[in-house]
Design goal:
The complex is a heterodimer. By secondary structure, chain A is mainly alpha-helical. Chain A has 20 helices and two strands. Chain A is about 75% helix and about 5% strand. Chain A has a two-stranded antiparallel ribbon with strand order 1-2. In chain A, helix 3 (about 70-90) packs antiparallel against helix 4. Chain A is globular, with a radius of gyration of 21 Å. Chain A starts with a helix and ends with a helix. The longest helix of chain B is centred in the first third of the chain and has 32 residues, at about 140-170. The chains are: A mainly alpha, B mainly alpha.
Chain lengths: ~475, ~475
Amino acid sequence: MLVACVALPLVGAALTWWLRRGEVGVGAAALALIAAAVLPLGRGDGWWHEVDLAWAPAIRLDFALSVDGVSWPLVVLTALLGLLCCVHNARSGGSPTLTALLLAVQGASTAVFLADNLVLFFIAFEAVLLPMWAVVHRYGIDETRRHAAAKFALFTIAGSLLMATGLFVAAADAGTADLGAIIAGGGVSEGVSLLVFALLALGFAVKAPLWPLHSWLPDAHTAAPTVGSVLLAGVLLKLGTYGLIRVAGGIAPDGAADAAPVLAVLAAAGIVVASLVCLGQGELKRLIAYSSVGHMGFVVLAFATGTEAGVRAALFANLAHGLITPLLFFLAGAVKERTRTGRLAELGGLRVAAPALAGLLGFASLASLGLPGLAGFWGEAFTVYAAAERGGAWFALAAVAAVGAFLTAAYLLRMLKHVSHGAPTAAVAGIGGLSVGEAAVWAPLVAATLALGLAPGPVLDLFATGVL
Amino acid sequence: MHAQTIDHVALLPLYLAAAAAVAALFAGRFAGAVAMIGLAASAAAAVWVGFGPTRETFAVGQWHSFVADDAAMGAAALFASLTVLVAAVSGRKTPEYCFLLAVSAAGGIALAGSRDLVTLIVALETLTVPLYVLVARPGREGAEAGVTFLIASVTASATALMGAALLYAASGTVHFAGLAEGLGGAPAGLVAAGVALVLGGLAFKLAAVPLHAWAPPVLERAPLPVAAYLASASKLGGAVAVIWVVHFALAQEAGLAAGIVLSVLAVGSIAVGNVAALVQRRTVALLAWSGIAHAGYVLAPLAALATAAGRSDAEAASAAAFAYAVFFVLLEAGAFASLTAVRGEDGDGGAVADLGGLWRSAPGRAAVLLVAVVGLAGLPPALAGTFAKVAVLEWLAGSAVWLAVVVAAGAVVGLGYYLPLARTVLLGRGPAAAKGRFPVAVLAIGAVLVAISLAPQAVLEFTALSR
């Protein structure tokens, strides 16, 4: 099943591209989701299932996959978003090649989440780059797509090579590249711990992205097609935070403790800066992209506290962001497709023209700003709580984060005011309402947002069983 | 006095390559076929000898001048196979052309087995001298390429010989095993000068900075199949020469001096090669400059010897460098072979923009070119390049993190020119009047690239050097 989770999307990608039929991709994505969904069957504590095949022992590369309570939710999220993207693309008559590229991104990302070998982790991490670059470059909707794609590629590869250096330092120090074994052994030795963590954190901070390394993200999001944005926000950013929490925190706990204040300050600064930028932002997709930077700031801040509550808050906020932001991007894509503009100044009155669409946009915005009862709330609330709990200077950071959460509410409501309320503008008037197909694609995300918001317990318990 | 016993089995690949050269010279219109069959037999023999026990011959005391171990035979098989590939994409050529190519391959095979400085330099010259003729196309430009190559090569050989002489003066021997023991007590200045001259001279073949300037104009003006040979087999020759000298002779007693010289060469090559490649508009020039950067990546693991914490695992440095060199020349061979196939063996590389639309007009050749280019950039799904990068970074991360960062920075810049090249091939618009030649040769190198992507252990096994 573990192998199927990775192999099905990749085989599906090859077949879709070969046969030029989007339906094949949808089928492969659906099978991959089923494979991911049944993973908890027969699980024990710690690692649920493991696969370990020697590949190239000379460079310490094993085809080792494993799954636990931390990685499984992300695998399911990836499979779900992959399926939704494939369905969306097939429905809207997109090119089969785009479906193939999306599946390739999905397969490689799943391999990252499941990798139990540092070298395999790096290779899977790199494998995400080219298909995503092609998605932005080839299928971008903006005239800036080439520039955005190049920026994405250069930032990502710089980050991933620094990360690779860190991984190999760790592997050389520990004498093994088995992630589980290094974590179980308490991480790398103290002498190199800070170096390893710094290299890894730099690499993952580019991907996450953490302020001030975020500048590729808004460009890429603005230029990418809707499905590209969805995968970018829902899956690619998760690679960074997952790597930071599981890999960097796991193999260099001492370094993580030393570097925590720096990370925390950057994260808090990122929350506020992103919120302020959003307040002045005039473009819908760019606004959502910057809001991602803020949300990722919460995740990193929670992780930096180093407490158990903090790490769980980080994982939860991570997952919630992976549900809500893709929904926002789907909605923004739908609005842009109908009105042919993403400028807030030209939008307005969506509530009158397409009430269901406006309602969903309102729902997603409220979830994103952390309304209690929806998924976004718990992660951010626990983050502030975990930071405040540590006292001292951390209290100040908690206060900054809380102000950031307030600003988040402010800019999302401002966005709603511009888009939904007021009299319909020329661009909005006469647009089509919500179609059944769209509703079907978005329904799982809405349902999951509600479920996580109303009952966060099971998922938090799941995180507690994870190997960290 | 008794005659020295010679292990002829160890020399079998060399005999076969030499026989192929002579046979090709007299084979008339079948010269190409004869050379290819002979060299293929030589490669097969090398593989066969490699799987057997390690053989040594030409003994002087306990030292041997020719050793047929796994690494040597692996490299020999690679020299022969790459030459077969080049011969296959050369089209119909004169017997003299095939003779020179096979002689050069024989030089490579001798180089792979050599274990003393004199054998090594003579073998390297045997590899190089036939190329003086091959690079020169008729006409003024071809003559310029030939003369440039000749002068640069002779200068480099003289430099390497001078260095060898200094090392001989310092230790009293030219055998690697003897140098490994004898350099310790010698005057440090003499040793350092010798090391710098030998490595600097040998690095010429690898086209490492500062002896790199010949490569782009020569590759650009040489016929495409010969450029393919220069970029693959000849580069492998340079890499093998440097790695052998460092690994067998210098690592123990002169590791520091060698490491410092090599760091300068490596960092210089990575910086100059990458930056210059960024501004190239012609395909061959781009590949040539990026090849200079790759030479830097090959040398980087060896450069870490200067700062390596423990000299005990110096073998890993050579293994990483050798593995990178093998992956790299195979990718380079793939790129040049497919380029030759689409531009024709008598054409030139043309501008990058000329490759626009290639994916539509010749998908098979474009696919091999793409795999090679993406592999040179080190990205999956062309895993061969990724493994090469992993091998280098893994050793550097454990010994010299700053060099790992330099390599990483180089790879980032590299993406800046490989991605546009890949994009042009895949998506660019244009007529791309593809010639569509040599299906078998392109298919073969494509299959090899896929195979080493799936089973890198096949390469990593024989590149794991032992002393």
